[in-house]
Amino acid sequence: MKLKVVVHEAEEGGFWAEVPAIPGCATQGDTFEELLANLYEAVEACLSVDLDQIEIANNDRILEIAV
Q: Facing residues of 26 across strands?
């Protein structure tokens, strides 16, 4: 999966970034390298789903896809 990320320089120093394709997915870092590491964690967290909190009927299917 490839995602576009918008990287901003923070006024107080460092960087922050947002992922427009995933509403609410944003992170920050004091350095660009820290920002990149935090981006991977943020995207993974934004895309993870806890199936225990979703009602699933007997005839429902759960699929995992790669895009």
A: 18
| Rg (alpha carbons) of the chain, rounded to whole number | 16
> What phi and psi values does residue 20 have, to the nearest 5 degrees?
-60, -30
In this predicted model, what pLDDT tens digit does every residue of 12-66 receive, in sequence order?
999 999 999 999 999 999 999 999 999 999 999 998 877 777 888 899 988 877 7
| Cα-based angle 29, 34, 14 (whole degrees, multiple of 5) | 35
* C-alpha dihedral (58, 66, 40, 10), degrees to nearest 10: -100
Return phi, psi of residue 27, to 5°: -155, 175
Are 54 and 62 in contact, with CB atoms under 8 Å apart?
no
CA distances from 45 to 14, 25, 53, 57 (A): 22, 9, 16, 25
